[in-house]
Amino acid sequence: MQRFVIPFSLSAAAMLGSIQPAPAAELDATRPLQAVPFQDVTIDSPFWNPRLEAHAQSTVEANLYQCEITGRIQNFAVAAGKAEGKHQGFLFNDSDVYKVIEGIAYTLAGRRDKHLEKRADEIIELIEAAQHPDGYLNTYYTLVEPRARWRNIAHGHELYCAGHLIEAAVAYYQATGKRRLLDVACRLADHIDATFGPGKKVDTCGHEEIELALVKLYRATQQPRYLELARFFLDVRGRADLRPLFGEYAQDHLPVREQTEVVGHAVRAMYLFCGMIDVASATSDQSLLANLERIWQDITERKMYVTGGIGSSGSNEGFTRPYDLPNDSAYAETCAAIGLALWNHRMFLLSGDGKYADVLERAVYNGLLSGVSLSGDRFFYTNPLASRGQHERVPWFACACCPSNVVRYVPSIGERAYAVGRDGVWTVLYMGSTARVQHRDRQIELVQETNYPWDGGITLLVNPQPEGEFALYLRIPAWCDEPFHLAVNGERIEPPPVERGYVALRRHWKSGDVVRLDLPMPVRRVYADPQVRANVGRVALARGPIVYCLEQADHPEGVRRLALPRDAALEAVYEAELLQGVVVIRGEAVALTGRSDEGEPQVEAVPFQAIPYCTWANRGRGEMVVWLPESPELAELPGETGIRVGELLVHGSHCNPTDTLEALADGVLPASSADHGLPRMTWWDHRGTREWVAYRFARPRTVSKCAVYWFDDTGRGACRIPRSWRLLWKDGDAWRPVELKPDAAYGTAADQFNAVEFKPVTTRELRLEVELQPEYSGGILEWQVE
Prior knowledge:
Blueprint: E1 2-3, H1 12-18, E2 34-35, E3 41-43, H2 48-69, H3 72-79, H4 94-110, H5 114-130, H6 139-143, H7 158-176, H8 180-195, H9 210-221, H10 224-235, H11 266-283, H12 292-302, H13 334-351, H14 354-368, E4 386-388, H15 401-409, E5 418-421, E6 424-427, E7 433-439, E8 442-450, E9 457-465, E10 468-475, E11 485-488, E12 491-493, E13 502-509, E14 513-518, E15 523-527, E16 538-543, E17 546-551, E18 562-563, E19 570-575, E20 582-595, E21 601-612, E22 623-625, E23 628-629, E24 643-645, E25 648-652, E26 681-682, E27 690-711, E28 724-731, E29 734-737, E30 754-771, E31 779-785
Helix pairs in contact: 2-4, 2-15, 3-5, 4-5, 4-7, 4-15, 7-8, 7-9, 9-10, 9-11, 10-11, 11-13, 13-14
């Protein structure tokens, strides 16, 4: 059995103190590996080819169409004076157009399409026409707030949009050789350089992105001022002695070199860490890397889902406390999975350590690909690990960062397949492909044949010109915990020791040498750290890099009623006609059919089928679960609503979608009623109404005391402590008020638990009912029941 995260028994503070920074030799900015560029890798993969075809035929078209009908492209025409109208959409909508162009660049690199290239060129012409003579370019501020340039650095997204323009320009230049957009990017970067820096405007962007983009521009143009500007933006972040700070949400609470754990908005954090690595790699500044390993451990051991999703909370689109990983309310934004993949690829290139490639692989095959349909034209913004059937991929979002991020990441996947270092070539993500690798004075062609991730057999044909000695590093994924087999030219060899996730084959290579690697792929039962309360008593299924789920399309009566006993036999079967061809996991589960009056579960044996998580919701709406209970006591009867927290079923009259009912029973004690740093339950946007929450117990329980900690965001929002409240218990089918003890009262004090004692009752369910204040909503941070 494989445990997903390392279990700790220490306090959160002690745990953080126990994480040691990686030795400098592991993250070495002076000796990084280099990714083999996307334009030098041709993919021929049974898994990736259908997705790349859907991307070229549908994803690009869907994004272009939506950018047209929502006015995103039109904004440039209006800003250029080529069309009449007003700015449409959010102030950061320019960035979506830039990301689509970047995606088109990667698509053209794989398959030159004159029609698609012409459309991109026409958009680029509009972008160029919208640029001001001084180099400034942003359609929102040009059309809506022309006098507010660079004044709203925290929330204005000007630098963020500029960063995506630069990335698109570099990619389009690499793919087509055309400089028009690159020249636009250089003029804008020169304008930014003239505006920001020592002795000029000392500030940094609320949404990181410009930092990594400027390093890309530096590498494309070899202009040192772009690299220095990127380092400036990093150096002034978190510097309260230089500028007002934006706080933890934007990773602007401490200087970047002093940050030791991940906080705030998940996508922003990932882009920041990418920028830190890129600047460190270009400048050999090891100080930027000193704490990145510590931050990486904080994420992967305490704040990452089994799918590679990150950012559990919708309220800040980011991180909360360690081990807060709810399933139904998981935010796990598609952009955040892409950011995690981008960052871990960079961490790998700095270290050659396979553990970073493992996280890259986990994010790509699960949390990232789940964000786009198999047809390529429908998307998820959030990627929960459980659903009651309310989730459905849609063609677009008003805030469309995720579709436009998918459109640029998927076609660049070839750049994550191989890397080259001083002494040889490294495999990173296995996929059928042909790579042309320049290693010193030698050109090496690698032809890889594999049905990965459905099968662990990998064949590599090595064609060096000229022949000679170098090392071929083969990644042995962390999920492979059984003996693997290795052969060269048909002769089985004893594998070299696995070091940091790799075996190194050092030999004199000749053209036509063939390497065969066989990685066993048994079905694995995966268990979460016991501190992840949402998954206590539950198991997830995985095979190879793929995480599985159950969805209602295969189980018409629902999947939340199912439990998977520890001794259940499991088998993997390839289904060519299902979901474009997938390996499914089959076995026998038990289904909850009812409960006795004493709460004992009544069950029946039923067959089940698990599908890859990345393919869920391609057959319509329905229930879905990743984490299955091992006991039917934790299963749910059809028709039950709410969230399961251990043996409690928590439900209520309403819960804001960005909050979670799980917060009521997560055991996290607030610092105050206005504590925004932990999960919460609110009835927002219901105001002045009667609302309720309830605990349903697995078996009748005798209770006589409870305490509630109210949420109140006076000065920031519209949640207030309720006007009044009371407790009711379920007596058969009737609800009855509890009988308070003579000295008890329903308290409405802030910043403390309001405890109440009552005559003991034996019940299966307890309800807390509130009257909200007129014109205000309300919420709860914690509800304890004894």
